């Protein structure tokens, strides 16, 4: 147990300074008496882990360019390595930054994956797989992920309602591509649009009042 002479109080949670006067505490801290998790320690571990991950990414890029250079740059295959590592780093960085809000994290990752798929389809000669499979499959996966998070965390309606609506509205993209004839394989896009209709119908039927209130809050109407 730690003690502050100036305030004449005992401090159960291990600390370096008194929470009242910020003076030094006497005694030895007891780890088993810690009442609250040390969030600073958790954040520092996360930051250190991300720094290590960033260094590994840089090392992989340097190694790829070095090997490509040694072999004579007859084809710049290391550029694909750089692009792949860069995409992976961005996705990981956003996942860490948005980790405290799982719903927002899922939506952000979906948008980034759209961009990643379109980018890779473009730099590899544009075969259309990003719009045929990439975008609709990402949306279908996000539908499932959001509902799993809702059931596992038992989140209240206001916490997830707006993200469900955002993902459903995002399904207008495959619908527009379908109507414009830009999609060669229709099934993934049709399933995506059908999933959006079912999701919006479920929200309107079972959570209609909460949906209306949440939309009024977000749109300030």
From TrEMBL:
Cited Pfam families: DUF6320 (PF19845)
Name of the protein: Zinc ribbon protein
Annotated InterPro entries: DUF6320
Parts forming coiled coils: none
Keywords annotated in UniProt: Membrane, Transmembrane, Transmembrane helix
Source lineage: Bacteria, Bacillati, Bacillota, Clostridia, Lachnospirales
Transmembrane regions listed in the UniProt entry: 50-71, 77-97, 106-123, 135-153, 160-179, 185-206
């Amino acid at each position: 147990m730690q003690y502050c002479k100036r305030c004449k109080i005992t401090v159960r949670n291990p600390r370096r300074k008194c929470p009242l006067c910020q003076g030094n505490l006497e005694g030895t801290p007891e780890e088993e008496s810690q009442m609250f998790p040390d969030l600073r320690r958790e954040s520092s571990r996360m930051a250190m882990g991300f720094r290590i991950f960033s260094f590994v990414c840089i090392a992989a890029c340097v190694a790829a360019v070095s090997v490509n250079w040694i072999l004579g740059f007859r084809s710049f295959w290391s550029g694909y390595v750089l692009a792949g590592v860069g995409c992976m780093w961005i996705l990981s960085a956003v996942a860490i930054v948005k980790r405290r809000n799982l719903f927002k994290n899922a939506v952000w990752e979906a948008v980034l994956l759209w961009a990643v798929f379109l980018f890779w389809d473009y730099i590899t000669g544009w075969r259309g797989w990003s719009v045929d499979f990439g975008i609709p499959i990402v949306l279908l996966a996000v539908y499932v992920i959001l509902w799993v998070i809702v059931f596992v965390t038992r989140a209240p309606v206001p916490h997830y309602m707006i993200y469900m609506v955002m993902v459903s509205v995002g399904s207008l993209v495959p619908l527009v591509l379908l109507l414009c004839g830009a999609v060669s394989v229709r099934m993934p896009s049709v399933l995506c649009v059908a999933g959006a209709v079912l999701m919006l119908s479920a929200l309107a039927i079972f959570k209609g009042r909460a949906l209306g209130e949440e939309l009024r809050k977000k749109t300030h109407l």
